[in-house]
Amino acid sequence: MRGGRGMTMQDPLTALRPLRRVRDGVHVAKVSLAHGGGGKAMRDLIDDVFVSAFDNPSLAPLEDQARFMLSDLMRHGDRLAFTSDSFVIDPLEFPGGDIGKLAVCGTVNDLSVGGAKPLYLSCSVIIEEGIEVALLRKIARSMARTAAAAGVAIVTGDTKVVAKGACDRLFINTAGIGIISEGLNLGAHRAEPGDAILVNGVLGDHGAAILAARGDLRLTSSIESDCAPLNGLIEALITACPQIKFMRDATRGGLASVLNELAEASGVGIEISERATPLREEIKGLCEILGLDPLYLANEGKIVAVVPGALAEPARAAMATHPLGEGAAVIGHVTQGPAGRVVMQTNFGGKRIVDMLVGEQLPRIC
Amino acid sequence: MQYIDEFRDPDKASSLVAAINDIVKRLAVGRDRPFHIMEVCGGHTHAIFRYGIANMVPPEIEFVHGPGCPVCVLPMGRVDDCVAIAETPGVIFTTFGDAMRVPGSRKSLLQAKADGADIRVVYSPLDALEVARKNPDLEVVFFGLGFETTMPSTALTVLQAEAEGISNFSLFCNHITIPATMRAILDQPDLQLDGFLGPGHVSMVIGTRVYDFIATDYKRPLVVSGFEPLDVLHSVWRVIKQIAEGRAEIENQYGRVVPRDGNPAALAAITKVFEDREFFEWRGLGSIERSGVRMRKSYARFDAERKFATPSLKVADPQNCQCGEVLKGILKPRQCRVFGKDCTPQTPLGALMVSSEGACAAYYQYGDLEGLRGPCAADAA
Amino acid sequence: MCLGIPGRIIEISDSTHRLAIVDVGGVKREVNIACIVGERAIDECVGDWVLIHVGFAMSVIDEAQAAETLRLLVELGEAQQELAAMRASSKG
Q1: What is the pLDDT of residue C2?
Q2: Residue B69 φ/ψ, nearest 5 degrees
């Protein structure tokens, strides 16, 4: 976000000056191109909608960049982790969350699955003219709440307004930094035969909630997105199992995609059990109606973790005691191969291959 | 889930497999080839792969994947017609998801959508009608794909449109019929089929008597089968039992859903709206007599074929494409010269690789059956 | 061609247009039930288990037949077990 003129440079972490007050605020109902012009209208929009929601010492000076003492960062570990993600979801609001909550969780989780303690986020938005200011405020507040729950701060960002049709209502990009503690080395190449594969709960909720919320399939259900910041859960997991080898959040492409990427990167095989793979009853119902495979549905609050076989139960227990780990389960293990092949033991007693998803899952009649 | 979970009970599965094994071991003595059971219907192909049934039955039984996948048998020329209609200004083209990725000679519907055509995936033709109600200034066309299972749905939707006086809705009718197809399959000289798993949901509409000719004229057993894995295994057992007992009869394993005489209300709707085409073009199978339906003249105002000009060209499959032979059961997917090479789910040459029921897509997605029983050439490739 | 799924009719949403709400494992969808009403009053359909395909109920699931099919499978299972026991004992 662009800073104001005539502001003194201070070290953000030790700044004690009072936080900025919103001056005039936005008094119109909808965003117009004027709000992107760089002038007063834009300052008012930024102040009213974003700054007041995200208020924190690192953001307050509103320079072109946020600044941090390296010595402070190095208290947490020896490597910097840095990630970025854009969010273009439609609809902007859905059961269980909104694009703002998703944007914060997505980046917090991307840092956390690498073993990093997430610290600071940027938030850049591209707003289509005509969007309601009240909706923007709501989304910004949702981001602030989620950031607070995750213990991270949104410290910098950017705002652009584009003409009608140039973007789909609202796009958000969040980038984030975190610090990885010494000795923690996670990676998709680290899986070895005998390792256990775990998830922290029921799968497919987010993908299903979005499908149902889009409305064109005209389904009613009580499924909600599982969107959540997982850094707390992951911290508990790493504490119980510092020898953990790999984590990834099972977002687009679902569990199946993560398993295939893992098998490929490590040059191993993977075998999972359908019986052990936790699914909500309603997800099964929705998948049956539409002919979808729940293994490919997106999750926004679920990780896949790989730990040495002997530590499977301590890892599962550590997750299960955390609120976001209800239903945590050991779903399978890593095998010799064939390399890159993921196989599922079906409830029925047969075996089937779980391949990479091609394109998008579409509802089918057949 | 009721009526689903009970028919996925693994304990009953092992008994069925044991029973099938007992019969087959006796029967197979002195035979030079496996028993070929054709599952006609794409939904059965899907079930066989999804539940790993093909590697549960003994190797003396081989499933031959039939052409009962309406997406797979859609000729490229018809896809081109869909794209032409969708690209007409002022049109919203609605379709089942299955059809989106089938390649046309220039592009698929998915590509046409990326190029700016208003194409929407719907779950039901009723949803397409709702789009028409909400967009009175635009023409809404619904792509009517499917066998007899889906015909009542599109017919009833047209009747609903008629009752409401909706004038901006039409159907692009590509419905095809099973019995004529099965006769064409049975007339293939290079096919050696020993029995059939009959299409469960088609039969729910048309009943089971329509298959009598298969027993009387062609002397093959057919068991109309449900779609849960126990249904499929149960039906396989009943087919193999008939063969063992020297019988060739039409049986109904799916009695809980399939009435012998079909569904009268559904058949009445079909008859009101549709009439037989003299012949219809099938991908890979060529032209089959009386295998498709079109809309009656009385429903011309709901007939997209009459309302829109389409290229209506017969487009040959790509030269390398062997969809036809796979559809007829002559080749297994991995025997097709382009399977896994030029033709993959990411770069499909033919519809069998695109449709989730297509045998090729199923092989690719769920895995080569023989591969799971032991090493095979596909693994080494 | 075949994706049909069992669901239970839980309420009639529009009797003129023969529409009902069907529940499949907790997910609900409005479905046309014109094909399964028959001679009955439409309200009598509430509680029926039906086979749904693309938003239309195409068949009422015959509970007796379903039970019969399962019973046959159980019988078959028991017969196989007896057979296996016989074989095991004759080998001994």
Answers
A1: 65
A2: -125, 105
